[in-house]
Design goal:
Its main location: membrane. It is found in: Cell membrane; Cytoplasm, Cell cortex; Cytoplasm, Cytoskeleton; Lysosome. Helices cover about 60% and strands about 5% of the residues. The protein is mainly α. Strand 3 (about 540-545) and strand 4 (about 550-555) form a beta hairpin. Helix 2 runs antiparallel to helix 4 (about 70-120) and helix 4 (about 70-120) runs antiparallel to helix 6. The chain is rod-shaped.
Length: about 575
C-alpha cells in the first residue's frame, strides 16, 4: 500500500502528517539537548563535590590519609570523579551523535519536503497547472455556450425574416448571412471547447495518475526514512547510556571494594607504629614526708611538680655518665643504656627515693614549661622510636639521591667516551665542569650518608637518642635542681653493696654480632646463648646475662628469644 494509490485525494492530510513528523524530530532534538545539559550539570556538581572533600596538601587530613578508612574515602572520591567523567561522556556522545546529527538530518528533510511540495515538478506546481487547465476549459465552454445561443437566435431571426411578406430581399439576405456567420463562430467555439476538454482531461489524468502519485510516494519515502532515523535516535539514546554502564559498574565496584578494604585493626597498629615513642610510663610519685626535716623555701607551693631524676641530676656532672644523658619525655628511657649494677634491679626507683630525700623542689616558670624542644639535625628532639624512623628515612633519602648522582656520573663518563671516539659529536672537555660538580655531590652525599648511618646505629644502641657528653648539659631541657651533699655520700655507700643476681626468665640466641660499645650494653657473637634477665619494655632493648655473670643490654631485634613458661 502506498500513498500515491490509496491517498490520491488526501493531499492536505499527507502535508499535515509530514509536517508533524518533522516537528517531532525537532522536539526530540530539544529533549536530548536538555538531557545533555542535565548530565553536564550533574557531572560538574559531582566533580565539585569530590574536590571539596578531597584532602588538600599540607592539611591535617593528609597525615590521616594513611589510615585505611581515610584511604577508602579518598578512593571513593576518586571513583566519584571517574563516575562524573562517565556522565560527561554520556552528555558528549548524546550531543554529538543525536542532537547534531538529527539537526543536520532535519534540515535535509525540510529541504527535501520543500522541493517535493513547492519545487519544479512538485505538488504545488502540478496543482497550479491543473487549475489553469480547468479555468481554460471552463472559459472555452462558456464561450461555446454563448456563441451557440447567439447562432440559434440568428438562425431563428433569419427564418422569421424570410417568412415575413413585408421584408425585402436584402433584409432576408442580410439576416441569413448573419445567421450563417454566427453558426460558423459557434462551430469554432465548439471545436475549441472540445480541444480544451481533451487537453484538460489529459492533464487531469497526468496529475492524478502520474504526477501526484510520484509526489505522494516521495513524501511517503521521506516520512518513512524520517521515522527510521528517529527510531535510531531513540535506540542511540539507550545505547549511549549502556556504553558507559560497564565503566560505571567498575566505579561502583571500586566504591564497594574501598569499603571492604577498611581494616581498623591495621589502622590501630599503624597508629601505634607511627606515634610510638618507646618510653615507659612514669612510676608512682613518692610521698614526701616533711616531718623528716626537708626544708622548703618560702616560694614553694604544694602544687609544684616534682623533678625527674635526670632533671635533678643535671648539675651533678661528676656522677656516672649514664645519669647525664638527655631525656625528652620520661626518665625511664635511660634503662637500655644504664644497666649499672650498683643500683640493684630498679635503678630508677633508687634514684627517685634518693632524690625525694634530698631535693628542694621549686616551681618552674610557665614560660620555661611551654618552651618547645629545639629541633636538631640528628632528630634528638624526638622520642627514641620516632627518632630511629626519622633517621632511617633520612638515610634512605640520601641513599636515593646518591644513587642518582652516581648514575649521572656514569652517564657522563659514557658520554665522554663517545666524544673521545667521535670528536665531531662534541668536545670531551666540555663535560669537565659537570663531572667535577657530580663528583663533589657524590662525596658530599657519601659523607652525609655515613654520618646518618652512624647516628642510626647509635639510635639502636641508645634509644633515648642522647650523647654521653659529660661536659655540657642540655640547657633546652628541663629545669635543674640542686642536691644536698647527702646524696653523694649515700651513693658512695651504695656502691659498696653487692647486688644479688637476678633470676633468668628465659634465654636467647644471638642472630648477629653486636659490639656493645655503648655504656650499659654487652657485646655478643652470632650464635652465642645468653640468659634473659629482663624483657623488652617497648624501647627495643633486652637485658641479658652471660654465664660468667656479666650483664648488659642488647638490641631485641638481634636475638631470638625463648622465655620460660
Amino acid at each position: 500500500m502506498d500513498w500515491g494509490t490509496d491517498l490520491w485525494d488526501q493531499y492536505d492530510i499527507i502535508e499535515k502528517h509530514t509536517l508533524s513528523g518533522l516537528d517531532l524530530v525537532e522536539k526530540y532534538v530539544k529533549f536530548v539537548k536538555e538531557r545533555t545539559e542535565i548530565e553536564q550539570n550533574y557531572a560538574k556538581q559531582l566533580r565539585n563535590l569530590s574536590k571539596k572533600y578531597y584532602p588538600k596538601r599540607g592539611s591535617k587530613d593528609e597525615t590521616e590519609c594513611r589510615v585505611s578508612s581515610f584511604q577508602s574515602f579518598t578512593e571513593i572520591l576518586n571513583e566519584m570523579n571517574d563516575y562524573a567523567g562517565q556522565r560527561e561522556l554520556v552528555a558528549e556522545d548524546m550531543m554529538m551523535n543525536i542532537c547534531i546529527e538529527l539537526t543536520k538530518y532535519l534540515q535535509e528533510l525540510k529541504q527535501e519536503r520543500k522541493t517535493v511540495s513547492l519545487g519544479t515538478g512538485g505538488a504545488k506546481k502540478a496543482q497550479q497547472t491543473l487549475e489553469v487547465s480547468y479555468k481554460q476549459l471552463d472559459s472555452s465552454k462558456k464561450r461555446f455556450e454563448r456563441e451557440w445561443r447567439e447562432a440559434e437566435r440568428s438562425a431563428a431571426y433569419a427564418e422569421k425574416t424570410d417568412q415575413d411578406i413585408n421584408a425585402t430581399k436584402a433584409d432576408v439576405g442580410k439576416a441569413k448571412q448573419q445567421a450563417h456567420m454566427r453558426s460558423r463562430i459557434a462551430e469554432e467555439c465548439k471545436n475549441d471547447y472540445a480541444a480544451q476538454l481533451q487537453k484538460c482531461n489529459k492533464e487531469q489524468n497526468q496529475f492524478y495518475f502520474n504526477d501526484m502519485p510520484v509526489i505522494f510516494n516521495k513524501l511517503q519515502d521521506m516520512d518513512e526514512r524520517r521515522g527510521q532515523r528517529l527510531a535510531d535516535g531513540y535506540v542511540l539514546f539507550s545505547d549511549t547510556e549502556k556504553h558507559v554502564m560497564p565503566i560505571i559498574d567498575k566505579c561502583l565496584e571500586g566504591i564497594h571494594k574501598a569499603g571492604c578494604n577498611v581494616n581498623q585493626r591495621n589502622d590501630s597498629l599503624a597508629l601505634v607504629e607511627q606515634h610510638k615513642s618507646g618510653f615507659e610510663r612514669p612510676g608512682d610519685i613518692e610521698f614526701e614526708d616533711y616531718s623528716q626535716g626537708i626544708n622548703r623555701t618560702s616560694s614553694d607551693s604544694s602544687l609544684s611538680t616534682p623533678k625527674g631524676p635526670l632533671e635533678l641530676l643535671g648539675k651533678n656532672r661528676n656522677k656516672k655518665s649514664w645519669l647525664l644523658k638527655k631525656s625528652k619525655l620520661s626518665p625511664s628511657t635511660i634503662l637500655p643504656s644504664t644497666p649499672s649494677p650498683k643500683f640493684g634491679r630498679d635503678p630508677l626507683s633508687y634514684c627517685l627515693k634518693e632524690i625525694n630525700k634530698t631535693v628542694k623542689p621549686r616551681i618552674s616558670s610557665f614560660r620555661t614549661l611551654r618552651r618547645s624542644p629545639t629541633v636538631t639535625e640528628d632528630f634528638g628532639h624526638l622520642p627514641p622510636e620516632q627518632r630511629r624512623k626519622r633517621l632511617q628515612k633520612k638515610r634512605d633519602e640520601i641513599a636515593k639521591e646518591l644513587q642518582k648522582e652516581v648514575d649521572q656520573s656514569e652517564a657522563l663518563e659514557k658520554m665522554r667516551d663517545v666524544y673521545e671516539k667521535n670528536p665531531q659529536m662534541g668536545d670531551p672537555a666540555s663535560l669537565a665542569p659537570q663531572n667535577s660538580q657530580t663528583a663533589q655531590n657524590i662525596e658530599r652525599l657519601r659523607g652525609e650518608l655515613a654520618k646518618y648511618e652512624v647516628r642510626s646505629l647509635f639510635s639502636f644502641r641508645d634509644p633515648d637518642g642522647a650523647q654521653s657528653d659529660e661536659g655540657t648539659p642540655d640547657h633546652s631541657q628541663a629545669i635543674y635542681a640542686e642536691f644536698d651533699d647527702d646524696f653523694e655520700e649515700e651513693e658512695e655507700e651504695e656502691e659498696v653493696e653487692e647486688e644479688e643476681p637476678t633470676v633468668a626468665i628465659g634465654n636467647c640466641t644471638a642472630m648477629y654480632n653486636f659490639p656493645g660499645a655503648s655504656e650499659g650494653t654487652i657485646s655478643m657473637q652470632e650464635g652465642e646463648v645468653l640468659d634473659v634477665v629482663e624483657e623488652d619494655k617497648g624501647d627495643g632493648w633486652t637485658r641479658v646475662r652471660r654465664t660468667n655473670g656479666d650483664e648488659g643490654y642488647i638490641p631485641t631485634s638481634y636475638v631470638s628469644i625463648a622465655l620460660n613458661k
